[in-house]
Amino acid sequence: xxxxxxxxxxxxxxxxxxxxxxxxxxxxxxxxxxxxxxxxxxxxxxxxxxxxxxxxxxxxxxxxxxxxxxxxxxxxxxxxxxxxxxxxxxxxxxxxxxxxxxxxxxxxxxxxxxxxxxxxxxxxxxxxxxxxxxxxxxxxxxxxxxxxxxxxxxxxxxxxxxxxxxxxxxxxxxxxxxxxxxxxxxxxxxxxxxxxxxxxxxxxxxxxxxxxxxxxxxxxxxxxxxxxxxxxxxxxxxxxxxxxxxxxxxxxxxxxxxxxxxxxxxxxxxxxxxxxxxxxxxxxxxxxxxxxxxxxxxxxxxxxxxxxxxxxxxxxxxx
Length: 319
Known about the structure:
By secondary structure, the chain is mainly α. It has helices spanning 2-20, 27-52, 60-78, 82-106, 111-130, 157-179, 182-192, 194-199, 204-230, 235-238, 241-254, 261-279, 286-301, 305-314; strands spanning 141-142, 232-233. It has 14 helices and 2 strands. Helix 3 crosses helix 9.
């Protein structure tokens, strides 16, 4: 009960801060807040597949990029509202996630081999989109600004902020409900010992594919938001390995397989990244250096992440 109350209190405090934050900050700080929420949403999407189901992914950029491109191309070429495009992108990303999973699991790929498959697929999509004129090629897609709410465009960035906040809250609530239902319990069982879970009657393939579909759809939702907020996408950005790393880092730092881990991780890493960029301007790839150092430190000294370690200690489990 103590652990549950602490978790609820922590998440409640984070939500309260998030609701007040945009009214107490200038434009630059508001942009940082949007970056935090976007990383948190990406982290929660990775958390479902990798934190709960144990399917370690290095290729979440594939799903992020699909969401960004599907909604943007439908909007620019066919006049389809991004509000509908986001749904189409999520469905297509979920299908691709199931396809990757089915092909991988059919050939019994697990662990490092599965992670490499996801990484390879993201790279394949990057090269494909970068060299296909029908998919806009290396020029990418430029979305003109029109300030029309039905087209997912707003003059005030606070509107973007609150839309993204709703997405993050919805994803977190979904994971909270999932973790307390049969589906979530079975995912954890599969993560701990897939063969034992299968022997007990858990439909392993079905649950793993479902987890991949949900995770991919959530990442695609983040990709659509990114495209509409920044107004420009190209394959080297939305399919980049950096996007996949940004999905992993908040979970590693906050705690994979925990409800609040990705939220806390994003809240730590983005301000730290902005601070280091401002103090050490001109150093290309500094954010990747920071990510690498933090991942190594947390894997070695705090394997459950900050949030995860606190929860485990309260439960009396040694880390």
